[in-house]
Amino acid sequence: MNPVDLAFAPALKQSELIRRKEISPLELVELYLERIQQFNPRLGSYFTVTAEQAIDEAKSKTEILAKTQDLPPLFGVPISIKDLNPVAGIPCCYGNAALLDNVSDHDDGVVVKIKQAGLILLGKTATSELGSFPYTEATNFPPTRNPWNLEYTSGGSSGGAASALAAGLCSIAQGSDGGGSIRGPAACCGLIGIKPSRGRVTHAPVGDRLNGIATNGPIARTVADAAALLDAMSGYVIGDSYWLPEPEKSFLTASQEHVEKLRIAFCTNLPPLGQADENCYQGVMQTVKLLEDSGHQLEEKCPDIRELIEPFQIVWQANVAASGVAVEILQPLNRWLLARNGNAGEYLRAVYQMQIVARKIVMFFDTIDVLVMPVYLHSPIRVGEWRALSPEETFDNIVRWIAPCPVANATGQPAISIPVGFDKKGLPIAVQLIGKPTAESTIISLAAQLEAANPMYDIHPKDYQ
What we know:
- This protein has helices at about 5-10, 10-20, 25-45, 50-65, 110-115, 160-165, 185-190, 225-235, 250-255, 280-295, 310-325, 330-340, 345-365, 390-400, 405-410, 440-455; strands spanning about 45-50, 80, 120-125, 145, 150-155, 170-175, 190-195, 215-220, 265, 270, 275, 295-300, 370-375, 415-420, 430-435.
- It is α/β, with parallel strands linked by helices.
- It has one domain: Alpha-Beta Complex (Amidase signature (AS) enzymes), CATH 3.90.1300.10.
- Helix 11 crosses helix 13 and helix 12 (about 330-340) packs across helix 14.
């Protein structure tokens, strides 16, 4: 396999080659470090590259391989970690260059799980400041660009993770999603992104401060890769605020199983925020046709989200105040969000209202198994497109763009983003599947069925081949 094909190979394929000793973890790490050195300056995918640590870890993994083959599915595969998640001994700046000297003294719980699964950390990927925005343009860092078209954003806040993976600068990526921050970047960059169920992935050791709307999850080239990484990430850690029992079967197994006939709803219009643009609309309708051809029962209907918009915004923007970052080093939009932050009573009323609406949305799923929606209501924006707008105008644009995503964050339901094609600018088009509570296996199986009918994982940005 030539170096480019190897760089873009699915992570499970790479792991198989490692087990067969056709490549070593060290060779794979060195390949990605070379590609990061070559392409990261134009993409802005990584804030920090941990070359020395990655090489040492790869050598250690190679020694383990000589002793045993009884290893986890993704053993020896290089991964990126989003720069909202602490990794011991490595800076974690949360998208703010003023915090580049903030060296973490511990591993985030999800990082511990990833290391235990035998993956090798390449570095910390770019994120929007505090993870607040659906584009990744942190002050005093290069903007993170979309490998499919450098004029456009790779999304946010896991924009660096998706950009790196789409350009072949890692095998697989970790992201987090508090309002579409996994699904949006995956959609912008033509990848698979899973927002797991609430309680599936630990928030240890710090805990959750956003009432369960945010979670860590995988970004991958294939459904099977994403499922395997979700298996590695999942599991209760003592003291977690939310937890789920272990699934009856692995998510990787679910990605390989036939899916029975499902009741599936779809929608492209979210009153009062509007109708999806032509690209996003066609992506949903193309997916509906594939699902109908596969024998599923489809109907057009959508949950009512009107009462969710305001309380979700209040809970989401509280992240800025909860961060404790000094106001004088924040970007203007985060300063504006901080100034809007209310008192504790207002926050708790918003949580109460969001929980009421979430119950109504979950009840919508009593008669359906899966909801198909756009990931965002319109195609990716250009890098810097909203830079000249006021914070209020930018915030309004954000709310309308990401409108389909907060549904699953508010309810804690699982959702997966999958690519379905490309628009005239060469940018990927995607849809998301939202499942019943705790039903990751269902949406993973269904996504694998769609992937088999319309494979996209062998198509890569031409400038990185």
